[in-house]
Every structure is written in C-alpha cells, then in structure tokens.
Write a structure and sequence with these properties.
This protein has 331 residues and is mainly alpha-helical. 53% of the residues lie in helices and 7% in strands. The chain folds into 2 domains: 3-180 and 293-321, 3-Layer(aba) Sandwich (Rossmann fold); 184-288, Tyrosyl-Transfer RNA Synthetase (Orthogonal Bundle), CATH 1.10.240.10. The longest helix has 29 residues, at 293-321. It binds adenosine-5'-tetraphosphate.
C-alpha cells in the first residue's frame, strides 16, 4: 500500500497559506494510502522559541489539523518528539548528506539572514526532514511549493543511502498542489504568507474570529487599477483570486469574467465572505477540541503507538544495513 507522510511545525494555530497549500491536501490524501501526519516539534527548536509555549503550540497545531478534517480512523496523527527514531534516523542520514547540498538550501539562507546567531539545527533541518519522511518509507509527501527543494534533497539522500547500503527506501514524491501552492501575504503580496516572516495583518489564521478574517481580507493591499484579473503588477489581486478560487471551487478565469464590470470593493467583500465560510466550521471544531484535552491526548497517544511501530522497524533496518549490531532490548 502507498504511504503518505507530511509534517507541520507547531507554530500554534496555522494560517490560510498552510491550510490551502498543505492541510486540505492532507485531508484528501488520507485515502490515498496509509497516511502519517506529524507535528514536527523537533524542527521548531531550530529557531529561537519559547519553551513554556512549545507544548500548547503543539496541541494547537494538532487540534487545527483534526478540525480541518484529519480523521484518526483514516490516518495517524502524532508528535515528532514522541517517536525517538526521528532524531536517531537523522543522525544516521547525516552521514550520507553533504555540507555542499545543505549549503544550497534557500530556506536556510532566508531563515538565517539577519540573525546574530544561527543554530546548527537550522542548517541540518532538511536531514531531519528526510528522516521524518524516509522512516515511513513514504511515496507521497503533500507540501506547499516552498518545500520543493527540501523534498528533492530527501530523494537524493534516499538514493545515496540505497546505493551505498542496499535498497531500503522508495523515492518520495512531493505532491505540490496545482493551485494555491503559494499563498501570499495580504499586506506584502510579493512575500509568502508566513508565521515567522509575514505581517500580522497580512496573515489570516485558520482560527481567527470571522470579523478578524473579514477585516484582514478587506484591507488587503491591491494596486491602483480597477480590473479583477491576474498579471504583471497585480500580485495582490491575483493572490485574492487564487484564494477565492480555492474557497468556492470556481476556476480563476471564471472569477475574472464574473468581476469584469465590478470594482475591487465588491470583489474583496466576496472573498472575505467566502473565506469566513470556509474557515467557520474549522474554527468551531478547533474550539471544541481545545476545550477538553482528553480526546486530543488520546488521539496523539494512539498516533505515537502506530508511528513508533513503523519508524522503529525502519530504524532497525537502517542500523542493520549500515553495519551496526544493536542488541535487542533487555539483551
Ligand atoms: N504561504 C504558503 N502558501 C502555501 N503553502 C504554504 N505552506 C507554508 N506557507 C505556505 C506549507 O504549509 C506546510 C506547513 O508549513 P510549516 O508549518 O512546516 O512551516 P513553514 O513552511 O515554515 O510555514 P510558515 O508557517 O509560513 O512558517 P515560516 O514562517 O517558518 O516559513 C508546508 O507544506 C508548507 O509548504
């Protein structure tokens, strides 16, 4: 059976870009094979973070995924730090990853620029990401466009491991959506919507109250023209067209035609209404899940058990292939 894997950082409640670019595809991909979704809290410590908030943020992210439609009966949802094989596997794969390829990662360059101190974890982040994916022998990895380069690296690492130590890993394919792969910041439409680098007003959170969602969309930066269409110099309007297209299922061309005789005001009002309705049920379910931790903790515990079974078995195969002879537990 095909395996699906994806990871998401515990930056608390996620934004509309995460939802459109990744989370809604996690939901659809639950039925494309055995699916594993991981809240990657070990990745979160690669940049400065607040230890007191890490656990709550992890639960917020897990609750957001469930509220968006992940069904624990159809997928495994778990927390990365609960499965020790991820960190162990990353160390092993670090022996076949090279400094040269890690040096070429654009996300490392973007995230390290302007910082006084950059952690070694930020540099080796893609190796841990490769371990996340390969421990589940995943074939399909639903991600946004910003993860394309990291996925290519994971494939190269898998290929090199296979040729040096014997065929173990299938080569994972990035499943990047045809539309909505890069949702832009509403205030700075040349930059992607982002938790760490976006503007607060330009970033719609999945669980923002409806009035906040509507206000952020209505105040989105556009251009001085009047035409609702995509194109050169129209990044702001183009971004809103893509968002409306995902929210309503209408093709961008049909949206452009429908608004030919209308101005930006009407258009933004309709985008705001559509996004409010898209996110309303997710927010409601999220608030329920966060009101009582019992259900959420149970789901993550069952997720840890299933993920550990698979990851521990792959880790044992990796160790064996690499020449280690680790005595069995209690032996
Ligand atoms: N703006 C975006 N448009 C489409 N997809 C996006 N993704 C992220 N931003 C956009 C996709 O969401 C998934 C989870 O991302 P993540 O939580 O691991 O963190 P990230 O990619 O680093 O996203 P953030 O929240 O925007 O964080 P920073 O500020 O660190 O960049 C991934 O599949 C990603 O492609």
């Amino acid at each position: 059976m095909a395996r699906v894997f994806s990871g998401i950082q515990p930056t608390g409640t996620k934004h509309l870009g995460n939802y459109i670019g990744a989370i809604r595809h996690y939901v659809a991909d639950q039925d494309k094979g055995e699916a594993f979704y991981c809240v990657v809290d070990l990745h979160a410590i690669s940049v400065p973070y607040e230890p007191a908030a890490l656990h709550e943020n992890t639960l917020d992210t897990a609750a957001t995924l469930l509220a968006a439609g992940l069904d624990p009966a159809r997928c495994t949802l778990f927390v990365q730090s609960h499965v020790a094989a991820h960190a162990y596997g990353a160390w092993l794969l670090g022996s076949v990853a090279t400094m040269g390829e890690l040096n070429r990662m654009t996300q490392f360059k973007e995230k390290s620029t302007g910082r006084d101190s950059v952690s070694a974890d930020l540099f080796t982040y893609p190796v841990l990401q490769a371990a996340d994916i390969l421990l589940y022998k995943a074939d399909r990895v639903p991600v946004g466009d910003d993860q394309r380069q990291h996925l290519e690296l994971a494939r190269n690492i898998a290929q090199r491991f296979n040729s040096r130590f014997g065929e173990l890993f299938p080569l994972p394919e990035a499943a990047i959506p045809a539309s909505g792969d890069r949702v832009m910041d509403l205030q700075e439409p040349d930059n992607k919507m982002s938790t760490t680098r976006g503007t607060p007003q330009g970033t719609v959170l999945v669980v923002d109250p409806p009035e906040v969602v509507a206000r952020k969309i209505r105040s989105a930066v556009t251009d001085s023209g009047r035409e609702v269409r995509r194109g050169e110099g129209k990044q702001g309007i183009g971004n809103l067209i893509e968002i409306l297209s995902v929210a309503t299922g209408e093709a961008p061309e049909a949206i452009e035609a429908a608004y030919e005789a209308k101005g930006y005001g009407d258009f933004k009002g309709d985008v705001a209404d559509a996004v409010v309705e898209l996110l309303r049920p997710i927010r409601e379910r999220y608030l329920e899940l966060r009101a009582d931790e019992t259900e959420l903790s149970g789901i993550l515990e069952r997720g840890r058990e299933r993920a550990s079974q698979v990851a521990d078995a792959t880790l044992a195969e990796m160790l064996d292939a690499m020449g280690f002879r680790v005595p069995p537990r209690g032996g």
